[in-house]
Amino acid sequence: MTKSWTRFLLLAGALVAGTAGNGAASSAAADGANGTDGASAPRLTGNGKPELDPGFGYYTHFTSALAEQLFNQSPVTAYLPTRLPDSHWQYYGMRSQLTGDGYILTAYRSEKALPAVAMLLGAGGAGEPKASDVLYRLAAGSAAEEGLSVPPSAKLLQSGDAAGWKFWSTGADAGLEQQLSSKFAAMVKAGAPVSGAAGTVLVTKAASGKVTYSASWTNNGGTYYSFAGFGSLEDFVSMLTSFRPVVNLLDSADIVLLPVDMQLNLQAGRSEMFEPYENRFVPLAQAPIVKDGTAFLPLRDIATLIGGEIQYVAEAGGGAVYVSQNGWLNELQLRLRTGEVFRKQEKLATVPLLVKDGTTLVPLRFMSEQFGLPVTYDAAAKAIAVHYTHWSTNSVVPPIGSKADYKTSVLSIGGPPFTYSNERLGSGASWGYEQQKPPVGYNSLKYQLYKVGVDLLPGDNAFVMRDMQTKRVIDSIPIKTTITAADVPFRTDGSFFADSLKVELKLTSSNGKSWPSGYAEISAGASVDITGALKGQSFDSIGMDYHAGNLSSKRVDIPLQDGKFTYRLTPNKGPGTYEVTLYSPPGSVPGMSGVSPLVSFVIVVPYAS
């Protein structure tokens, strides 16, 4: 899908009112590359592996080795869920093997921890699980029948014709049918449960009261996938909508930037917690406590496991605990005597605290309100689930760029929820993106594949990705360029007057050197003479400012005479890269009091060698 480029001008906006991850792999792509053809070298990560969906392929997840095996050995494209069913405080076990035209997999609960090799394809050392321990079964192949065999007595509950799915039940009473109809109707609002596939769901209630949830789907009418869940309806729906193909995502994009979901399961009185995706139990300094209906968690254990740090400091009036997250030291101060919570000097809240055997326990809402962590509490079971997300990134971005307008492709979740920039131009520099269709199996309502463009300069650059909300850097990819000063243009991206105004500019250093285009280099304390002419608009003046990293100058007005001007600019923010922008005068945009950027260029003051 081709669309015109859209510019995000974060500081010099189109209308300005008034004023980790892993390192880049070998470069199989060139500027603007997107995917490979059959003759290209494999686009693998820096450690020579495919980049699989982090839901099952993240290196700490117990499913990662099996997923890599399926990628390399399955005769058909494998599908795996990125969500796990409830194991009821037991370990997960898996038995799987290849078949002549696909594979079969059984997941079950186990009282004992199984070594990773026992869950690989064809490993049978753990033995056949008991039927009561089976959590789900999964199979793929060229089935003789097309999908599930729906009995004549089954009742059609929901027909998601637009999504290509039908939902049936058999043996269900009226109450269960109503529950199923409501759940499935909500499911298909977001599209097909398995994106890009047509399928069938069958819910069977046996005379014993046991309910089995089954699904079958196909992408091409040749290979069929079947999935049967033996747990709750919530687990079935969560898992069915989480299936993703086991494919190398670097074949679709130069950069893969996806969330990694983590979960911590705790229970009042239990001195260890369970990490489902890692399939391990972790001892706690103190078991969670429920007091007066409120659940309390051991602060140090939770903070450490989500990548934070905790430090006790003795202070006047009682000690305090400083809690950080993702490397932000002393982000929160928790005063142990009063329960007051501060960020810097701002009081955020007061929370009740418990101290048992020297361990500080905080209420659930402290974790959700102060760290934004989704936390759920089952009062009946006194069970707590803490959810935590971080970013996984990998890339095959070429380390050398040959164009000033650098384009690469990114597969990520919708939004886009990130900003992109050249480190030399600062986080406020302009960038653009062109949306495309994500890979098969990835719902375009959640996932996006888009080409991203940033401006490069001669010499060393870095392609920086930031979280749009927190402004934190997710990854920084070094890029050298072969371009020269003559290759950097005067840029007119985002101008309201782009079609009606022609701007002619010339940059001359104070030492008399004339620069061929939109890039100049000067020594510290030197100046640049800017000579220009505007044709197509009758402005009396224009505005000008510059940005150097996160520093900005005041905007100055430059008078025009017959559309021409001359201005001497002396950058005074020290060594660095200055992005200079010229603006239309206030009120020049019809119906608005703001201004529009006209043209921008770059002046570099090198650091002393």
TrEMBL record:
Residues of the signal peptide: 1-24
Gene3D superfamilies found in the cross-reference section: Copper amine oxidase-like, N-terminal domain (3.30.457.10)
SUPFAM superfamilies noted in UniProt: Copper amine oxidase, domain N
Region of interest: Disordered: 26-47
Keyword Cell cycle among UniProt keywords: no
Domain Copper amine oxidase-like N-terminal: 280-384
Record's compositionally biased regions (Low complexity): 26-41
Keywords, in A-Z order: Signal
UniProt superkingdom: Bacteria
Pfam families: Cu_amine_oxidN1
Protein name: Copper amine oxidase N-terminal domain-containing protein
Protein's organism: Paenibacillus lycopersici
